[in-house]
Design goal:
Blueprint lengths: L37 E7 L12 E7 L15 H20 L20 H16 L6 H23 L23 H18 L9 H7 L1 H20 L1 E2 L2 E6 L5 E6 L3 E2 L8 H9 L44 H23 L3 H24 L11 H24 L7 H8 L1 H9 L2 H7 L2 E2 L1 E5 H4 L5
Antiparallel strand pairs: 1-2, 3-6, 4-5, 7-8
Helix pairs in contact: 1-2, 1-10, 1-11, 1-12, 2-4, 2-8, 2-10, 3-4, 4-8, 6-8, 8-10, 9-10
């Protein structure tokens, strides 16, 4: 858990010799703050607005490493980070459990955006914000890089185990996966890749520039903005420039028998479910057997008579309807990294701007620019598409992330309304545990494991729930 200090009080009225050090604890990397020979000021502020009250009262606490009883200044957590994560986890559970019954909150079958389509960008965004705090001060760049690589590998491996298909038999209580068919990419894998790339950028790509304005902030991290621009350009060139040839796939039926389907493409720059470059790259590099078997485009009108719900295939269904497609594929992960880098910029604002008004102002500027970019791209024909992670999807979801985070920051960390958000704060602190237990079917499998004579007569049935 990382510890971060924001020097100076939020309204700038205290003397520079008395600094308000807020230890903001975050869940990525541990760092100890040396409190010896420091003068800590704790400001008592009523929730009366962005800048607090005009004349805040100050409690001076003199602390030292040798006198823990006197060093009583309590570390204060940046609660808005946890609340944002908690809201994202709650939203994830909502769309996973209720999406099948309500298309408005389920993932969009292809083009368009729904509530569910904000979950992944929200996770990536808050990872970036956290990284801005985690790597505020890096003493050893090589050591920090290796730690980031190790953490990313652990998260990626966990994702492959949990989402690769090993835990698949919720109702039949079966498990295990053929390594020739294991899914390589997934939610945790994408987060791991984005985290690693953003961490490397934060460790190595910074300038020694004193930040006193939005312009100087951009100048200090201009290399990171350059990386984001280059990644976006690479994505656009590959998505719209690669030629997608005809391709085939098989669907097993009984025993060793299977049906071979052919998909006609022979196009360049297509963004349809069948002939886009995102799917082609995954088929070529990962292999079609290692992709997600139930893509959202199975609920499109071409592939379901009950669209936007899942259903039987229409009589004239195209051949690609049963093909695998990974919504967390390789090419689309490039823009996921960009989302994380944008979140990193929002984290930099927390580090370098010392009062609430300045932070919120910078966030609103960035969010407004992203929102305007999204409308511009949509107006000129770039579809919002979560499966392809288009640039328009990136800009509109990061704009929403920035606005939501700024609102939570004002509500919780500035105005102090923590009681209504306690449940979200708790979920945010245990986000990974909840994701593993609920979204990866570990908890359902555990519950279904207690049954009477046969799996369908299980604990949930005794409690009146159907499974």
């Amino acid at each position: 858990m990382g510890m971060y200090d924001l020097v100076k009080n939020d309204d700038g009225l205290l003397d520079d010799r008395i600094q308000n050090i807020l230890a903001l604890e975050e869940g990525i990397e541990s760092r100890k703050v040396d409190e010896s020979a420091k003068l800590l000021a704790r400001k008592v502020i009523k929730p009366s607005g962005i800048g607090g009250v005009d004349s805040p009262s100050v409690e001076i606490v003199v602390g030292s490493a040798d006198c823990p009883s006197i060093s009583a200044a309590k570390a204060v957590r940046l609660v808005s980070l946890d609340v944002f994560r908690g809201i994202t986890v709650a939203l994830m559970i909502l769309v996973d459990d209720g999406g099948a019954f309500c298309p408005a909150i389920n993932h969009s079958p292809w083009n368009g955006i729904t509530i569910a389509d904000f979950v992944m960008p929200f996770f990536l965004f808050i990872v970036g914000v956290s990284l801005g705090l985690t790597y505020k001060n890096v003493s050893n760049r090589i050591d920090a890089t290796w730690k980031a690589v190790f953490r990313a590998l652990k998260l990626f491996t966990m994702g492959v185990v949990l989402q690769g298909g090993f835990f698949h038999g919720v109702h039949s209580l079966t498990f295990g996966i053929d390594l020739l068919k294991i899914r390589v990419m997934g939610v945790l894998q994408r987060i791991a890749i984005a985290y690693l790339m953003a961490a490397i950028c934060e460790v190595w790509l910074t300038n020694d520039v004193l930040v006193d304005s939005g312009y100087s902030l951009v100048k200090k991290y201009q290399l990171q903005f350059l990386v984001g621009g280059v990644l976006t350009a690479i994505y656009l060139v590959l998505l719209y420039g690669l030629f997608v040839p005809d391709w085939q796939y098989q669907i097993p039926i009984h025993g060793d028998r299977s049906i071979l389907y052919s998909v006609k493409c022979g196009v360049r720059g297509d963004t349809s479910p069948a002939c886009n470059a995102v799917g082609m790259i995954d088929r070529k590099i990962l292999g079609i057997e290692h992709l997600y078997k139930r893509p959202a485009y199975g609920r499109t009108k071409q592939c379901s008579i009950n669209s936007p719900y899942s259903g039987p295939l229409p009589a004239d269904a195209p051949s690609w309807c049963g093909a695998p497609f990974d919504p967390e594929g390789l090419l689309s992960t490039i823009m996921a990294i960009v989302t994380c880098l944008i979140g990193l910029h929002f984290g930099h604002v927390i580090v370098h701007f010392k009062n609430h008004k300045a932070r919120v102002f910078q966030w609103m500027i960035s969010s407004s620019c992203l929102l305007a970019s999204a409308f511009f791209l949509i107006y000129f024909g770039m579809h919002i598409n979560k499966a392809l992670y288009t640039v328009s999807y990136t800009t509109i979801t990061t704009a929403a992330s920035g606005l939501l985070f700024a609102g939570i920051y004002l509500l919780v960390d500035v105005c102090g309304y923590r009681r209504p958000t306690y449940s979200m704060e708790w979920m945010g602190k245990h986000a990974l545990m909840i994701y593993v237990l609920v979204a990866c079917n570990i908890l359902p499998i555990f519950i279904h494991g207690f049954y009477w004579k046969e799996p369908k007569v299980n604990l949930l049935r005794w409690l009146g729930f159907t499974v």
